[in-house]
Amino acid sequence: MNSVFCNATGISEAQFLEAKHYSDVLPASVADSCKKSDQACLLQEVPHLSTEWLFFVDGREHLLEITKVRLLNKDGSIRGLIGIATDITERKEHEKQLQHIAHYDALTGVPNRVLLADRLSQALARAKRDQGLMAVCYLDLDGFKPVNDNFGHEVGDKVLVEITRRIKEVIREDDTVARLGGDEFVVLLVGMQAPEECAGSLTRLLEAINQPIEVMGRLINVSASIGVALYPEDDHDPDTLLRHADQAMYVAKQSGKNRYHLFDATNDQLARTHHELVQQIGHALVQGEFELYYQPKVQMQTHRMVGVEALIRWHHPQRGLLLPSQFLDVISGTELEVALGEWVIASAIDQLRVWREQGLFIEVSINVSAYHLQTPNFANRLKAQSDMCCPGNCYGTLQVEVLETAALEDVEGVGNIIRECKAFGMSFALDDFGTGYSSLSYLSKFDVDVLKIDQSFVRDMLFDKGDHAIVQGIISLAKAFDMGIVAEGVETDEQYQALLEMGCEVVQGFGVAEPMPAASLVEWAAKQKGASV
Ligand code: C2E
Ligand code: MG
Ligand code: MG
Q1: 431 within ligand 1 shell (Cβ under 6 A)
Q2: Is residue 510 in contact with ligand 1, taking CB distance under 6 Å?
């Protein structure tokens, strides 16, 4: 024994010297186990390792790691043993903390993906053995992203913590809730006898989550979409069950959110293609498989090209050239939609710059989804992007098209964003106008420059009196509000002529030109010039 040990344990040097054996001074339980490890050490040639818990004078129990080795006399007989002890309490605690970090979600304290995998295999094994039911529920919050965007991450975090608390309150002790990250959770429901029990739990989960949450004086509403894979009906390995639950969650989202959907093998294919398509789009964006085509808009009187509309195309490696209707819907309202929209803006602005350098000064309009338009700071970001890609200020020739129906969803919000963008000199068009039943009072809230008459009216106006009247009405409306007018989908000379007579100014349609790659546009424009001379 040395003074460090004496000081730490509070047993004095004198006590040790008086004692015949350490068992006289060390606590009995420690002494017993020390004696045992001594015995083991004496029997082996190599050093012996053991651990002991010992109370120190600081009042805490410390974990000592003890290495002992036997000492031999010259003749090989055993003389005794010598050992050294290290206090590894802190190291152990640190290890424990690391274990915790590796297995639990830092924000909510519930198991993370790693520990979930463990729990899931255990629960599945138990369900198999007991012939019980087990539900793997994949839960994704609806409307969480706007909470983060509008109120900040601090509020978002509080919401996640509260949601976790509510989930824990609903589930039973043997059930597990894990957070996979973001606003995604997995709940394992175990020990059930009938599927109805599962339905009850799911309904309670949805209800609990859907109650308003009060955070920092604000009332916040979120809901959840839950996908469920039920064992033994769905008899697969843990990973597959989790994937099935994930797919079912997408179906729940698509069928209107705030609901659960049970995975069902016949629907499997449907959900899978949907999920795969979303992944492919993300991949395609990285791989550069998207391209903007441009469709000219021409002045009716002069046939002069006044601008182009950028329309996205996807060069799919297997399926060939895809139109927006074949892929935009599945990413509607997602991060990916915003990422793709940002790509569209950047590409269009870059093209605008290239054309300017080639001496082609035209207006370029881009379609922006309502969700993208309402992301924080849209106007400033658009301006910054245009300043960066196209120095020398090209926002005067940049136009944003927003669907009339989308604009009507949030008249105030969209109206404000339009005003912000217009302050920089960008112009706005209401797309597919006439499909949103917009009233005059709404229209006055949108400070837009152009109305684009929806192509369905143009298509039928020559034989449908109602559509003819609508086209005429929109043209007069635009004039009254001092807005420009573009008729979309003009395919025939008759339509062109009729529109001209009605006072329409600009047309766009296959009858003038189909959407084309940027490189072809310069050629097309040159030919037009030649023709009109
Ligand atoms: P939109 O903005 O109303 O664009 C006009 C659509 O009508 C284009 O379809 C165009 O190819 C088509 N079109 C033009 N002239 C004619 C014609 O004479 N006859 C017929 N039948 N169709 C004509 P496209 O390119 O398939 O785009 C469809 C819609 O997808 C667009 O409608 C727009 O709402 C959306 N979209 C296209 N590109 C983007 C984009 O980059 N971002 C977003 N958010 N939406 C886009
Ligand atoms: Mg458009
Ligand atoms: Mg349109």
Answers
A1: yes
A2: yes
The answer to whether residues 300 and 375 belong to one domain is yes
Nearest CA residue ID for atom 15, ligand 1? 509
Question: What CATH number is given to the structural domain containing 73?
Answer: 3.30.450.20
Pair (81, 186) in one structural domain = no
- How far is the C-alpha of 73 from the C-alpha of 83, rounded, in Å? 17
Based on the fold, state whether residues 162 and 239 are members of the same structural domain: yes
pLDDT at 388: 80
Instruction: Give the residues across from 229 on adjacent strands.
Output: 136
Closest CA to 373 of 307, 419, 442, 432: 419
Q: Is the CB of 454 under 6 A from ligand 1?
A: no
- What is the DSSP annotation of 139-175? EEEESHHHHHHHH-HHHHHHHHHHHHHHHHHHS-TT-
Q: Of the candidates 43, 63, 93, which is a domain's last residue?
A: 93
Residue numbers of the domain that contains 17 = 3-93
- Mutate-to-test residue for ligand 1 from 281, 367, 459, 490, highest number of ligand atoms within 8 A of CB: 367
Whole-Å CA distances, 332 to 51, 428, 479: 60, 21, 33
Integer Cα distance of 177 and 235 in angstroms: 21
- 344 Cα to the center of ligand 2, angstroms: 13
- For residue 248, the 8-state DSSP code is H
- In-domain check, residue 195: yes
Query: Is any atom of ligand 1 closer than 6 Å to the C-beta of 111?
Result: no
Overall pTM > 0.70: no
Residue nearest to atom 25 of ligand 1 (CA): 311
- What is the CATH number for 183? 3.30.70.270
Structure tokens at 307: 């601008």
Q: Are residues 410 and 495 in the same domain?
A: yes
58 and 141 both lie in a single domain = no
For residue 445, CA distances in Å to 374, 411, 415 come to 16, 7, 6
What is the per-residue pLDDT across 451-495, written as a single tens digit (0 to 9) for each? 999 999 999 999 999 899 999 999 998 998 899 999 999 999 999
Query: Based on the domain organization, do 289 and 187 belong to the same domain?
Result: no
Instruction: Give the distance (Å) from ligand 1 centre to CA of residue 524.
Output: 19
- Indicate which atom in ligand 1 lies nearest the CA of residue 292: 41
Residue 98 inside a domain? The answer is no
- Which among 265, 299, 323 is the end of a domain? 265
Tell me the C-alpha distance between 239 and 247, whole Å: 12
426 and 503 part of one domain? yes
The total domain count for the chain is 3
What are 126-184's pLDDT values in tens digits?
999 988 899 999 999 998 988 988 889 999 999 999 999 999 999 999 999 999 989 99
Q: Are residues 181 and 242 in the same domain?
A: yes
